[in-house]
Design a protein that fits this description.
homotetramer, Rossmann fold, Dihydrodipicolinate Reductase, domain 2, 2 domains, 7-stranded parallel β-sheet, 7-stranded mixed β-sheet, 9 helices
Chain lengths: 340, 340, 340, 340
């Protein structure tokens, strides 16, 4: 199978390249970049040094392929898909533009009319833990919001059981979420040691969470912390009825038993008793843990992912595996580093 | 006035030394350390280099003084105060042991019988924003919990107005909170880039918040992030009635108008639109900001402090100023550094 | 005395504002910024919050003043000084353009003809440790190169004693050296945890070192490390004759005995036995230490500064104090923070 | 093949576990820890979560195996090898105690009599780039010093060509070098943002460099920087005769052409033009680059490794592959992450 990446000079594009370069069922055909055309990909993605002679091609030079990843796509150019869909049997669009199923939701959260609304129903939300069956053989899959993914996988078993009355999701996120483009807020002197709430309210990923998990009162706040890769989600859940930790064990185990990339982390010993994103850098895992507050009945659910992996390229490759009929976990076996 | 510090080799002791060394109304008489006796204080606290010839004395060599700071006190040795109170006109105990007014609360949260319960009522909780009048001329003041301080100052105006039905306090804290003693969890390879929830539930500082702010449903979770000094508090407040941002402006301005060390931070421009702890390193400020969630009515209150300053030594010196009749802000004028 | 700052929105401009705001002999008259005109200065420099209502003015609106700091000056616009010199009795230009005394040196290291060569001799190199007498009452002073300053103060006693045959200067520098402007290399994901040699050879600050310290074989390499403020200089010196540590103590003590901002740091106990830049953030100190290599006779001299202070704004204010007849250390008393 | 690890709870032991867990030719038989006996290995090494049920065994319970790694060995207990050698066909001792071939060198650098000098000649220094032929089928291999490895691979082509008259090696190292044991200097508040020269002179790894590279004047200084994994070596080489960059290209290419884990990094474009350790976390690469100083003829050679990999466990597994007849690069294929 030949896979190509449109917009491959960013962080997500690099992560796709890293995964596909070692994927036994896939060959990378082309990777494009408007600003780095003709440069060796390893000058931008140093993990390719000595391993790949791939060069960035002009985006206009894209040839037909089996799987096309859109990794540099702009949210306001969704009609690009009309032009591109003829070039590939499968399309995975990692931008936000096909994550929502409803044009009205798009309008509400993104503030514009959707440019290709006829595709909204054709795309599958690319999180296999939610849409595995639909992804098998699918032609179109969207990427996922990284913050949405951490939140969804933290809350999913509770939501499915109808146990959430109110959820307050407090996210701590790394700097790679903002992408590779230079910005004042991302400069090291400003961003190092930051604990900077950038979305106290109004974060767009709420739209995905609501769409996928359904109806409960959702609050959402995101804060940047000093970390490159990673999202840590603390979900404070006020349940519709009292739940014990033992019941939570049962619920989460039941729900995630067969998931290759979701682990329950709740240890009695050691430093790492709950999920921590830094342990997951480069992996496709989502770690999930929980604790019940005896005073208030609140359930604290903690989850952690690598935003570039489970929150972007990892879920995209996992989705591709399902779309193309490969073994679902293929190419996603990295276990992580410690200490790091 | 002669001030002495018992247990001066830790981070809080160092911060007291830093503040008192430049305080125009105070002279540091003695600083003790059991493990560094006779060493120059500057070998432990490098900001004293070239500025002070002070050496650590043996704790047993403590002489009478005007103000005594207990900075290395153990929570389980509260009866030490009986022996020490004769040595000083004013005592500021920065440990947890005299923060609570009720022996029953102590038992509930610290799990032991209080060793000197007859002093509980004699100590004033050392946060001038709450107890200014009582601190003036007081003989005994407690220190404050750093996480409690950030939470209390975030919530105080809402609590006084009876507007809090439920508050979910999500704290992000720096590594200096854990003190200078070597521990596995504090080693750089383990602690760097951590986003580690160390108290999902059950954090003891809740006892102080409840005591000082009264009755509402309080949830509290604390997460370690990669920062040395600082606490960032995100308080998700579900109000008893709908409140607009304009009303919040009025409420917070009214409440904090005359406070020398509380600032409302809510900017339209620039990177630093809400409170951020790294900007406050070395200062005695508590910055407070807020935003209303249009979807749910939730109020997001954000606050930031330096845990060693407003959350410990800074509030202690501010309290001392009140106890001894000095100008309240004396010695606390540092404005902070940027970038840092 | 009224001081104004041209180009006050960058890191050095901010540091000047911080120092001058607390300087007892100076009032800040104006601070300009082309890109932030009319904005409150505290939106860019958060340490001014609640302390100053200063707004950025248009650079063209500059009024006559007693001291003018050029903090945003471009190296290729040195002729600007002709227009500006009439507006102020004293001018301190913190750019590189008047640090060298020779137009030929400028051409060699900066690759252009100097635009105002007639001023080169009128400017004093603004490092009081080298040019105190000339700075007293001077009309023009240059700023200093931060890396040059750390190197010069490490080597000065040895150079003056004619003891350097060969010096290999290996610098480790923080991210604030690159300034506030957004760049790809300065983005947090790329810059965090970097150990990135950006000038293996050819660094321009060598020109200043050579000019100020005279003739010996100088090698110079600069590497970016994960730090915001600070320069650490490791100077490996091969001496013209064998020197003992005792002799070094004598030499350095003799040389720096009366310097208010140079400290010899060489401890037997504690963690901080040699100079470390993070301890100096916000201070005007240069700490210097040394050790002799018994195997090779090499002298290792270590120095540390805050690049924005002793390496820029701090030395500039110290120079201003001399130029204007103020006490030399006025406004530069901050002792630093620990831990930080 | 069955491999066991004695002392597997530290960082190097963890890294061995990580590598061996995915090694197709090896099965991990036992991993011991005196302090964590019976605990699941994943509580200490979180990358094993959901992948391994291995528990730490008592060191005394060690059974015979094919390959034995000593990962927690103490330098002063070299006689342990007498007792252990009967338990395994191949022994790789990652401590310092068998790196030197001469008991006199041991005495000079480690200050004690070697406890098992009869083994010194039986061990091969475990760096395949130096001793590939001897390692093939060898019974005993030592580990390597991480700082020595970075230095040796930077200098090797020049040393072999007899081109080094004087080398000044300036190392920047990460915190994992100090191991997992808690220490005051390794605590996050003290170690974060450190630029701390801990060995201005006298570093023991010099003994290995001298032994392996032979006779030239060597100076060596090591400085801790804010990084977990990684060593960056800047070798300032004064050559016996002038060398051009073109000649260096020839020399290094010739020398490292067939090495699977040494890459020459010297790019014209992009951020990462020279070796950087953070790009190598988890990999077995040593990246090497160079530049000639036109002014002085100095050659600046830069190298970077992951100290836990090429500087410890990676080279040990590479050595094991040679000792046991496996493909040399087996199990060492991880390419690294970016950004990280």
């Amino acid at each position: 199978m030949r896979a190509s990446i449109l917009g491959g000079a960013g962080y997500v594009g690099g992560e796709l390249l890293r995964l596909l370069a070692d994927h036994p069922d896939v060959e990378v055909a082309q990777v494009s970049s408007g600003s780095h055309t003709n440069r060796f990909a390893h000058t931008v993605h140093p993990f390719l040094r000595g391993r790949s002679d791939l060069r960035f091609c002009d985006p206009a030079a894209l040839e037909p392929c089996d799987v096309l990843f859109l990794a540099g796509a702009h949210d306001d150019a969704a009609d690009e898909v009309r032009e591109l869909e003829g070039r590939a049997r499968h399309v995975v669009d990692l931008s936000a533009r096909f994550r929502l199923r409803s044009a009205a939701d798009w309008r509400e959260w993104y503030g514009t009319e959707h440019a290709a609304p006829e595709y909204l129903e054709r795309f599958v939300y690319g999180l296999p833990e939610l849409h595995r069956d639909e992804l098998i053989g699918a032609r179109f899959a969207s990427g996922v919001g990284c913050n949405a993914t951490a939140s969804i996988l933290a809350l999913l078993p509770l939501a499915r059981a109808g146990l959430i009355e109110r959820a307050v999701v407090d996210l701590k996120v790394g700097s790679s979420e903002a992408g590779a483009r230079a910005s004042a807020g991302g400069q090291h002197p400003a961003r190092a040691r930051a604990v900077r709430t950038y979305a106290a309210t109004g974060h767009r990923h709420q739209a995905e969470i609501r769409q996928e998990l359904g109806d409960f009162e959702l609050s959402f706040t995101a804060t940047a912390v000093d970390l490159v890769r990673g999202v840590a989600c603390t979900a404070h859940v006020f349940p519709t009825e009292a739940v014990s930790e033992k019941e939570l064990w049962g619920l989460y185990r039941e729900h995630y038993r067969s998931e290759p990339f979701v682990r329950i982390v709740k240890e009695r010993h050691g430093l790492y008793r709950y999920p921590e994103p830094k342990l997951l850098a480069g992996t496709n895992y989502c770690d999930v843990g929980f604790e019940v507050d005896e005073c208030t009945g609140r359930i604290v659910v903690m989850s952690a992912i690598d935003n570039l992996m489970k929150g972007a390229a990892g879920s995209a490759v996992q989705s591709m595996n399902l779309m193309c009929g490969f073994e679902e976990a293929r190419g996603l076996g990295f276990a992580g580093l410690h200490p790091v």
